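// run 5 | inverse folding | seed 20
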C-alpha cells in the first residue's frame, strides 16, 4: 500500500492527505549522479573574475623610450613591456568560465533522485496553497511559523509565482526561498533542509518529469 502524506493549510492544520507519485518521490537514488550534477550547478554559478592586464591593455607606452642605437642602453620598444615597472603581465590569469553543460535527461534524473531523497528523509511538506492578501514579509513569516519551519532553511515550490509572494519573500530569501516548480533543479532541492510543495505544484512536477522521461 502506498504511503500517504498529509496536506496542511497556512495555519498548519491538516486539510487532506494524498499519495505522492512513486516514480518521482520513491525512485532509486543515484548518489553518484547527484554529486556530479551538484558540482556542475555550483560551478555554473561561479564567475572567473581574476584578470591581469597584458601590455596591449595598459595605456601609454606608445613612444619608444630612446633611440635604437647609440645610447649604451638595451633596446626598448615600449615602457609598457613586461620587464618595465607598471608594464604588462605575461601569462597572467584571465577571466574564465567554469560552466559545465548538463544534458536535460541527467538534470531530470538528478531532480527525481533529490526529491526521492527528501521524501526518504521525511523532509517534504505539502501545503494546500500559499496565498497572501498583501505583499508583507511579516505575513509570510507568520505562515512559516505556523508550519513550523521558522528555524530551518526551506525551499517552497509553487505552481505559479505570485507577485505578492515574490515581494514578501525577498527579505527571507536565505531561509525560505520560493521557486517555481517548472524550473527547480536538484541543486536547489538538496541545499535546503526542508521542501515545501504547493499541492498544485505536484502536477507541474509530474508533467515536467514524466513527459520527458
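// decoded
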Amino acid at each position: 500500500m502506498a504511503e500517504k502524506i498529509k496536506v496542511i493549510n497556512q495555519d498548519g492544520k491538516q486539510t487532506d492527505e494524498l499519495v505522492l507519485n512513486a516514480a518521482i518521490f520513491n525512485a532509486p537514488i543515484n548518489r553518484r549522479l547527484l554529486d556530479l550534477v551538484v558540482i556542475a550547478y555550483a560551478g555554473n554559478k561561479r564567475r572567473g573574475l581574476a584578470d591581469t592586464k597584458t601590455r596591449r591593455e595598459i595605456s601609454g607606452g606608445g613612444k619608444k623610450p630612446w633611440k635604437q642605437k647609440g645610447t649604451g642602453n638595451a633596446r626598448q620598444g615600449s615602457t609598457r613591456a613586461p620587464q618595465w615597472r607598471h608594464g604588462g603581465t605575461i601569462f597572467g590569469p584571465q577571466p574564465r568560465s567554469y560552466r559545465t553543460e548538463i544534458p536535460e535527461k541527467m538534470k531530470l534524473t538528478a531532480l527525481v533522485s533529490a526529491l526521492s531523497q527528501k521524501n526518504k528523509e521525511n523532509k517534504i511538506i505539502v501545503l494546500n496553497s500559499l496565498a497572501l492578501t498583501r505583499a508583507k514579509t511579516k505575513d509570510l513569516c507568520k505562515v512559516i511559523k505556523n508550519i513550523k519551519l521558522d528555524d530551518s532553511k526551506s525551499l517552497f515550490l509553487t505552481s505559479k509565482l505570485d507577485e505578492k509572494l515574490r515581494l514578501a519573500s525577498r527579505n527571507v530569501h536565505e531561509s525560505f526561498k520560493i521557486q517555481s516548480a517548472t524550473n527547480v533543479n536538484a541543486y536547489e532541492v538538496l541545499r535546503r533542509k526542508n521542501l515545501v510543495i504547493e499541492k498544485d505544484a505536484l502536477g507541474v512536477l509530474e508533467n515536467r518529469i514524466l513527459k520527458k522521461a
